[in-house]
């Protein structure tokens, strides 16, 4: 039995080595999993020079503080606390770029991923014949286990199928969040990766354009020990936005696609509200139209705040201020829409061309102005 003092001396000596491997753990409200996760890595990576970077999105439960408490005794543990920005993909990119090791692994901090695979993944990369090793729940021998509900398993299968068909991604499990790659690959691809979304692996593989040498290893997805899953139903829309963006070669940002998708939903909300105001409230059309407009703008604001700008999500009084600025931005957007449409129609009276140009102008204005005024970076 090794004494605590002896163990700390061993850890101090190990920490002086230049790490071969950096394990990046994006976190939000994972305080209860921090200590068990570090202990699991110590056991799994015994004999390997390693470091772990917790990239925490300013968790209110004190996740970063818990990691720092361990870092004071074990210098192999590092912490990046992100304030004013959120999102799993962005956290992963930031952690990979902060690595000083030639190899970087990304995995969840909730102990659902099998850390005992890490030495094998590292050994495969060190042969020089592979750029990316993916732990797959779909490879022969892998399984979803008890970590996903039936509904989430079905959704994961659907998402995998869409990625494979639309982006020609050959991975059996492109939705996996457990992988290891050469840091040089991360450095090269990072400027082209989206800071939004939850599926960083799909982004990496799609951005790699079929040039990455990939190997898959099976693993069984385990149950979460502490805390709650951060995935919600709106993540599906975010994922679809990433697919479309990559399908068209990143010509349009994922955020703008999300903003546009929310705007499209606002048309339906507007029509439903207008119908309700005319029939149920028996209002005059102009009054009903005005009410429906504000209902649609409010719906768009709430959805954008939760999805499109989830990394800059407004709360409390900031949410009220944001709603008022969003009203103002959209009001100017209507003027831009009508102005551009009228100008084009006067020059060339083609209704659909003028209408489309006006709508596009309004959408671009609303997106650009709300990014600066409503969801401005902290």
TrEMBL record:
<feature type="transmembrane region" description="Helical">
    <location>
        <begin position="324"/>
        <end position="345"/>
    </location>
</feature>
<keyword id="KW-1133">Transmembrane helix</keyword>
<feature type="domain" description="GtrA/DPMS transmembrane">
    <location>
        <begin position="259"/>
        <end position="375"/>
    </location>
</feature>
<keyword id="KW-0812">Transmembrane</keyword>
<dbReference type="InterPro" id="IPR039528">
    <property type="entry name" value="DPM1-like"/>
</dbReference>
<dbReference type="GO" id="GO:0016020">
    <property type="term" value="C:membrane"/>
</dbReference>
<feature type="transmembrane region" description="Helical">
    <location>
        <begin position="351"/>
        <end position="375"/>
    </location>
</feature>
<dbReference type="InterPro" id="IPR001173">
    <property type="entry name" value="Glyco_trans_2-like"/>
</dbReference>
<feature type="transmembrane region" description="Helical">
    <location>
        <begin position="256"/>
        <end position="281"/>
    </location>
</feature>
<keyword id="KW-0328">Glycosyltransferase</keyword>
<dbReference type="GO" id="GO:0000271">
    <property type="term" value="P:polysaccharide biosynthetic process"/>
</dbReference>
<protein>
    <submittedName>
        <fullName>Glycosyl transferase, group 2 family protein</fullName>
    </submittedName>
</protein>
<keyword id="KW-0808">Transferase</keyword>
<dbReference type="Pfam" id="PF00535">
    <property type="entry name" value="Glycos_transf_2"/>
</dbReference>
<dbReference type="Pfam" id="PF04138">
    <property type="entry name" value="GtrA_DPMS_TM"/>
</dbReference>
<dbReference type="InterPro" id="IPR029044">
    <property type="entry name" value="Nucleotide-diphossugar_trans"/>
</dbReference>
<dbReference type="InterPro" id="IPR007267">
    <property type="entry name" value="GtrA_DPMS_TM"/>
</dbReference>
<feature type="transmembrane region" description="Helical">
    <location>
        <begin position="287"/>
        <end position="303"/>
    </location>
</feature>
<keyword id="KW-0472">Membrane</keyword>
<feature type="domain" description="Glycosyltransferase 2-like">
    <location>
        <begin position="22"/>
        <end position="189"/>
    </location>
</feature>
<dbReference type="GO" id="GO:0004582">
    <property type="term" value="F:dolichyl-phosphate beta-D-mannosyltransferase activity"/>
</dbReference>
<dbReference type="GO" id="GO:0009247">
    <property type="term" value="P:glycolipid biosynthetic process"/>
</dbReference>
<comment type="similarity">
    <text>Belongs to the glycosyltransferase 2 family.</text>
</comment>
């Amino acid at each position: 039995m090794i004494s605590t003092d002896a163990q700390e001396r061993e850890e101090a000596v190990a920490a002086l080595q230049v790490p071969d491997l950096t394990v990046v753990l994006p976190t939000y409200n994972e305080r209860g999993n921090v200590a068990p996760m570090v202990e699991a890595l110590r056991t799994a990576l015994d004999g390997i020079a390693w470091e772990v970077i917790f990239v925490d999105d300013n968790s209110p439960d004190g996740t970063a503080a818990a990691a720092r408490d361990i870092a004071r005794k074990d210098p192999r543990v590092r912490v990046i606390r992100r304030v004013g920005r959120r999102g799993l993909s962005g956290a992963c990119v930031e952690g990979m770029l902060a690595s000083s090791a030639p190899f970087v692994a990304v995995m969840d901090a909730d102990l659902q991923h099998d850390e005992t695979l890490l030495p094998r993944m590292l050994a495969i990369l060190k042969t020089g014949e592979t750029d990316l090793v993916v732990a797959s729940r779909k490879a022969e021998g892998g399984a979803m286990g008890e970590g996903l509900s039936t509904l989430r398993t079905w959704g994961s299968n659907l998402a995998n199928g869409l990625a494979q068909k639309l982006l020609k991604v050959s991975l059996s499990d492109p939705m996996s969040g457990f992988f290891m790659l050469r840091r040089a690959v991360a450095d090269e691809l990072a400027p082209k990766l989206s800071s939004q979304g939850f599926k960083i692996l799909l982004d990496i593989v799609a951005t790699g354009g079929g040039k990455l040498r990939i190997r898959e290893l099976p693993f069984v997805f385990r149950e979460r020990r502490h805390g709650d899953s951060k995935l919600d139903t709106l993540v599906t829309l975010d994922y679809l936005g990433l697919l479309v963006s990559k399908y068209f070669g990143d010509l349009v940002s994922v955020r703008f696609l999300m903003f546009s998708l929310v705007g499209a939903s606002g048309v339906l909300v507007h029509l439903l509200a207008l119908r309700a105001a005319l029939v149920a409230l028996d209002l005059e059309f102009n009054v009903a139209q005005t009410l429906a407009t504000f209902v649609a703008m409010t719906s768009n604001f709430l959805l954008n705040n939760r999805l499109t700008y989830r990394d800059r999500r407004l709360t409390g009084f900031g949410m009220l201020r944001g709603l008022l600025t969003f009203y103002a931005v959209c009001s100017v957007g209507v003027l831009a829409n009508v102005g551009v449409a009228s100008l084009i129609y006067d020059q060339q009276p083609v209704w659909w061309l003028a209408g489309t140009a006006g709508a596009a102008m309004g959408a671009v204005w609303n997106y650009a102005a709300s990014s600066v005024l409503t969801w401005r970076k902290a």
